Amino acid sequence: MAITLERDGDCAVVIIDNPPVNAASHAVRQGLMDAVTTCDADPAISAVILRCAGRTFVAGADIRELGQPPKEPHLPDVVSAIETADTPWIAAIHGTALGGGLELAMACRARVADANAKLGLPEVNLGLIPGAGGTVRLPRLVDAETALTMVAGGKPVGAAEAHRAGLVEGVDEGDLLTAAKELARSMTGEEPRTLGRPIRQPADADAFAAQKAKTIAKARGQHSINAAVEAVARALELPADEALGAERDAFLALKASEQSAALRHIFMAERATLSDPRCKGTPRPFDTAGVVGGGTMGAGIAAACLLAGLTVILIERDGQAAQAAHERVSSILDQSARRGIIDETTRADIGNRFSTHDDHGPLSQADLVIEAIFEEMDVKKAVFARLNAATRPDAILATNTSYLDVDAIASTVADPSRVIGLHFFSPAHIMKLLEIVVPASVADDVVATAAAFAKRLRKTAVLSGVCDGFIANRIMSAYRREADYLIEDGALPADVDRAMRDFGFPIGVFEMQDLAGLDIAWAMRKRRAKTRDPNERYVAIADGLCEQGRFGRKTGAGWYRYEDGKPVADPDVTALIEAERARKGIAPVSLTDEAIMDRILSAMQSEAQAVLDEGIASKPGDIDVVMTSGYGFPSWRGGPMFMKAQQDT
Ligand code: NAI
Predict the structure, then answer these.
(1) What number is the average pLDDT over the span 22-49?
(2) Is 563 designated active site?
């Protein structure tokens, strides 16, 4: 039974029970319609409290129903029935009220939220806008600026912020139902329905126009964001019924769009990455993480673990390096406190859970150790040999290597079944993606622990087999190689970067190299020079840049020159490219942006297919998740494999 109705004095309590997230599926909608009729027909009921069983309020529409023909009653009709009911409805919100859930709540006469609740309209992330009046009711409860941020940004707000903004009438720290009943009894019956409330127009029209322009600029081709901005603008200008009609039309058009199909694919793929049965096993307990190496990655990993509530023991080479690592981690945590991610108490508590050392002794306390030292096999092997002796025999040993053979690293430990790869992306405390690299000898419960660890850190984790670069860096190396071919063939770095940005990447491949630094890849190419196939096409332009000391932004120049921190095309780089073409006897051809992107995408897709065929990735969706959350592939295009499947049909 999706809906039950209980009586509590003169209040009716309508409870939605549709596990796991109380989605507004057909049975829920029908049940709510019936509840409106029942309650209105009973003169003894003076108020109706709408609440949910389980861990959350309605967390959205039923995403599976989005791909099917809609069944009556539609959500807008249910929302409207609640709003126009004779008996006032009050929403009692715990967990998350998202999308259709918040639309139901906004149709109620008043709302009370648990202190930990979150409220939002995340439809843009699925390529949609709210379709049941969300864009029209929200600016009648909160100011226009907040409405625009919530509808077009898709991020939920916490209960306290929702209260400040006017979205909920009360926040409750105790028993939510009691609070809802109190709110019901305090109501006079004169409270206006939401659509009857006046619109809260922007305080400053120019600032609001600028906010709209900025939001659209950030959309980078994602139609739903533009549609969200337009919907809020319409809600501010048009009578409610017209705005509602236009919102529904826009919602239905977006629902049928390729972009929404792509974003829904990514949404589902992100939730399906850890479907491997080993990920569902019982994890080993982990509370204390060791981190070896506190450079760029080690510091970010340590901070991520601390922010997730773990105790962290960080080991560096010597006292000075340990001190520097301590400062690096502290500065990340201070930043998190400044940005409001953690409060002062948590910041202080984290200090007690974090220590740095220059010897391996304290690692005997660790349940899990993550190595993030220099990318050199011999150095890594030496450290793993030391970890073998310094750690408990059941402690998990992980490497953050970007490219090296995790099987070979595991072989240096007496019990290789406790070794796994945990490949973070930079900055590790911010980037959502984590590749769990699974060596042949790993124990099943070590995989389960890695999956649980990823969840604890709120990362989107993907399992990868062992190969040079795993899923992400192997595919990235392939399209970077293609980008090198493109510049030898006739394009300039700025042409490739522009084509990628226009496609929807936040940054082009050459700008990205300048940002990350060219020296590390140069060192790797020099190491591999001896084993390189002499017949392989090799582009030496990046080597030429490095020989001139052009290592990217950090040296003021790389593929670009930098003026006021902005990349500018550099005639010296063009001259170097032209000289290299002449040396190889390549006659440059002119390449359109479309031709450039076709080649980049094909390179990506053929390497991705190889990764899949070799079993490095277990399903196409995992590759799409890696590329969208690791390397900026536009989610609204669904990822390279999603595009390939569309191209093939
Ligand atoms: P980094 O050079 O910033 O940091 C390495 C740190 O390890 C240094 O602080 C160094 O003092 C310390 N270290 C070296 N040998 C040590 C030892 N025996 N014991 C304790 N500490 C030692 O390097 P980064 O960029 O943090 O990379 C570390 C690892 O993470 C590498 O394997 C790299 O391939 C991988 N990685 C790097 C990414 C990046 O974007 N930088 C992304 C993902 C992985």
Answers:
(1) 96
(2) no
CATH level 3 topology of 277-464: Rossmann fold (3.40.50)
Q: Is the pLDDT of residue 306 over 80?
A: yes
pTM of the full predicted structure? 0.92
| Gap between the terminal Cα atoms of the chain | 41
Residue 495 to residue 121: CA distance in whole angstroms: 37
User: Of 65, 72, 103, 237, which one is the catalytic site residue?
Assistant: 103
Q: Report the pLDDT averaged over residues 286-294.
A: 98
Domain ranges of the chain: 3-256, 277-464, 472-615
- Contact (CB, 8 A) for 139 and 147: yes
C-alpha distance from residue 378 to each of 46, 256, 413, 470 (Å): 75, 54, 14, 20
Classify domain 472-615 by CATH architecture.
Orthogonal Bundle (1.10)
Instruction: Provide the edge-to-edge strand list for the sheet that holds 89-93.
Output: 3-8, 11-16, 47-52, 89-93, 110-114, 170-172
Q: What does the block give as tokens for 61?
A: 């529409």
Ligand 1 neighbours, Cβ below 6 Å, are: 292-298, 315-317, 321, 372-375, 379, 383, 400-402, 424-426
Architecture field, domain 3-256: Alpha-Beta Complex (3.90)
CA of residue 373 to ligand 1 center, whole Å: 3
123 given a catalytic annotation: yes
List, for residues 391-418, the tens digit of each pLDDT value. Answer: 999 999 999 999 999 999 999 999 999 9
Distance 378 CA to ligand 1 centre (A): 14
Distance in Å, CA 381 to ligand 1 centroid: 14
Give residue-wise pLDDT tens across range 100-144. Answer: 999 999 999 999 999 999 999 999 999 999 999 999 999 999 999
Test site for ligand 1: of 291, 292, 297, 514, most ligand atoms within 8 A of the Cβ:
297
Question: By percentage, how much of the chain surpasses pLDDT 70?
Answer: 100
pLDDT higher than threshold 90 for residue 96: yes
Residue type present at position 92 = A
